[in-house]
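Q: Joint fold for the lines below.
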Amino acid sequence: MEDPNVPVRIMRSPLGRAQGLGAARHGVGHWWAQRVTAVALLPLSLYFVASVLILAGATQARMAGFMAKPWNTVLFLCLIAALFYHLSLGLQVVIEDYVSHEGKRRGGIMLVNGLIVLSALACAVSVLKLAF
Amino acid sequence: MKHVRAAQMIGRNSEGDLVSRPLSPFMIGTAYRAQMSSMTSIAHRITGCALGVGTLLLTLWLVCAATAAQAFADIQGLLASWLGLLMLIGFTFALFYHFCNGIRHLAWDSGRGFELGAMHRNGWIVLAASVILTAGFWLVGFLVW
Ligand code: HEM
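A: Joint structure:
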């Protein structure tokens, strides 16, 4: 159990180390997904900011014309996916930090995720409806 | 009181009355000096949550656009009002701050810019960049509008 190359005693089972699971009982998946969505959001949020400037004061007809361009449809759908996924991961961490009661914590995360799924679908369907 | 931890949060003030001890946010300014590290960290969290609220506005905007021409005209009018613009200025600042500080986070994750001096410096850069980006956005915004 002790690694001769590591000068400290490792207080974890070999299986636990191999699986890489810590006290949170899950691996680096959550952390990594937060970084991947953050990197995706770097260009996507700049695109969003630019598109909002283009659509300043727009009528519905101009908005629909904008969304009907294939690149805009695709980029908006990518933005919506990355944005809401990143938000879900982020708010989960915030709730875990502040809500110590297990039931309320789990319930809160589920409630927030439910709202996020609703919002994300409403956004995606709206973009598609404008585009087609 | 169910937990030992909760019991430890009870103390007596100088009059001898039982009071709950102040948690760290209430100590800022009195016992705890605001620092670049903690302030930019909590600001990242606050702006992230604010942007979460902002996604509700984004949803409303897109749903209105997909519903009817009049509904979209109404929300565009609302956003162009003083209250709407104030809200949008807040959201753009939150986005630019979270964007810039997000880059700082990603740099830290790759092991860069973590020394005390560098952390202090890039914190100021993030703050200045968010203000400049927000001002630039609205300058262009009012020009193209
Ligand atoms: C613009 C590009 C963005 C980048 C580069 C970015 C980057 C990041 C990073 C690196 C973290 C992890 C910070 C940590 O470990 O404490 C994070 C957290 C978070 N982000 Fe973003 N983000 C972006 C956009 C957004 C948007 C648009 C939203 C909201 C819809 C958002 C909401 C959040 C939330 C709620 C957290 C959790 C905050 C916390 O744990 O303290 N982010 N972001």
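Q: Anything notable?
A: Residues 92 and 137 of chain B are 8 Å apart (CA to CA). The pocket of protoporphyrin IX containing FE is lined by residues A 34, 38, 41-42, 45, 83, 86-87, 90-91, 93-94; B 44-45, 48-49, 51-52, 55, 98-99, 102, 105-106 (CB under 6 Å).
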